């Protein structure tokens, strides 16, 4: 069974620090990787997608993918209290369904 | 990305009744999905809503309990039948962007409480 694992948290970081969120997956042939942010009481919203090994940067967010280690991470630089949310990692193989991780709850302390 | 709306946004229902949730997209999409998110949990795929044919259900979900319609490429409904308190959850519709990357975007969700 395909699995996606994340630390449930909560992960607490001070405002202005770097938050590092990690995700591992079991299906070696996975090809697409996504990070979603979900505020309490809201639906998930897409932050980043990454398909190739290495880093992908978008503003304060950097996604890192290492397919050999089956590991994907999300770094949030200059963390703000508004970044406090649950971050969901999702993994997909073309033609198959998304598999979501349990999510990591991030708390950015002012 | 597509704009997705769901109705109702929330409801409180009595045990044994049924609720139909609607999902409307502002553009034609090939793939539509229904998820459930129980309190404090991650997303669980219920089924893929196929246009013109029966939905494809995931293990643990059956058509009698969660009938799905997909009459066209912009609309789908999910019915939660014969509800019990265990069905209290958030139900989310999602669509795939159809641009080859298979990225999914979510509607605002329907918050269901069954008493």
Helix/strand structural class of chain A:
mainly beta
Mean pLDDT of chain B: 93
Portion of residues within helices of chain B: under 10%
The secondary-structure class of chain B comes to mainly beta
Shape, principal axes of CA atoms of chain A: globular
Q: Oligomer, anyone?
A: heterodimer
* Helical residues, percent of chain A: under 10%
User: Quick one: biggest sheet of chain B?
Assistant: 7 strands, mixed
Task: Please characterize this protein's 3D structure.
The complex is a heterodimer of chains A (110) and B (115). Chain A contains no helices and eleven strands. Chain A is globular and about 40 Å long. Chain A is mostly beta strands and 110 residues long. Helices cover 0% and strands 54% of the residues of chain A. In chain B, strands 2, 4, 5, 6, 9, 10 and 11 form a seven-stranded mixed sheet that branches. Chain B has a four-stranded antiparallel sheet with strand order 1-3-8-7, with no helix packed on it. In chain B, a hairpin with a 7-residue loop joins β9 and β10. Chain B is globular, with a radius of gyration of 13 Å. The chains are: A mainly beta (110), B mainly beta (115). Chains A and B meet through β4, β5 and β9 of A and β10 of B.
């Amino acid at each position: 069974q395909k699995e996606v694992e994340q630390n449930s948290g909560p992960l607490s970081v001070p405002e202005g620090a770097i938050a590092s969120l990690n995700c591992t997956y079991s299906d070696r042939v996975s090809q697409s990787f996504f990070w979603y942010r979900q505020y309490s009481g809201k639906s998930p919203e897409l932050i980043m997608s990454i398909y190739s090994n290495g880093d992908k940067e978008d503003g304060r967010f950097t996604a890192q993918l290492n397919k050999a280690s089956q590991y994907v991470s999300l770094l949030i630089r200059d963390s703000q209290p508004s970044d406090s949310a649950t971050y969901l990692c999702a993994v997909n193989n073309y033609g198959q369904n998304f598999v979501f991780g349990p999510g990591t709850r991030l708390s950015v302390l002012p | 990305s597509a704009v997705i709306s769901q109705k109702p946004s929330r409801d409180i229902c009595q045990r044994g009744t049924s609720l139909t949730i609607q999902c409307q997209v502002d553009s034609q999409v090939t793939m539509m999905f229904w998820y459930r998110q129980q309190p404090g949990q991650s997303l669980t795929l219920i089924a893929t809503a196929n246009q013109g044919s029966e939905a494809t259900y995931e293990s643990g979900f059956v058509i009698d309990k969660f009938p799905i319609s997909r009459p066209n490429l912009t609309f789908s409904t999910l019915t939660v039948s014969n509800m019990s308190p265990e069905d209290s959850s958030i139900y989310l519709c999602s669509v795939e962007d159809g641009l080859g990357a298979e990225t999914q975007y979510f509607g605002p969700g329907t918050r269901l409480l069954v008493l």
